[in-house]
What does this fold into?
Amino acid sequence: MWTSTDSISNPPQPRGEQQRHPGGAPSPAGGETAYIGKSLLIKGEVSGSEPIHIEGRIEGSISLPGGHVSVGREGVVISSVHAGEVIVRGTLQGNITASERVEIHRGGNVIGEVVTQRISIEDGAQMKGTIKMGRPDPKGHLEIHDDSRASLEHSTPVEEHPMPAALTTN
It folds into this structure.
């Protein structure tokens, strides 16, 4: 049986609008978001395919290739993050590799290298580190093989030319 309180506590969601989880941050329409609450501390690797919203603390790598990582205002992440998009409203200390975009909102703090196609940094946000724009190198995690090093060692040295002496006046 329907009561008037049903429509208040569970209002219908219009199609295409973003849903909100307990932390108040948007999640992709129709998708479920994993929520790491304020009192939670995770030490270790986090990986998967569903969106994640962090209000607690994570110390360890986060890998959600093509996924969505959101660091809430109370959230603290000390790790490298590899995802499709990363939104920071809290603190993230570590390198970010995002295949789509990175957003750093007012009050957000990022320390580390950011590699992404698009980035936005709001007034009042803090960023300390480097930003590399463009598609992340899919083979960037591979090391140089020993045979490549050997070919570099056996290459022909570049001929050096002496620099002209500086002009002096008396």
Residues 32-133 form one domain. Residues 1-30, 147-161 have pLDDT under 50 and may be disordered. The longest strand covers residues 62-71.
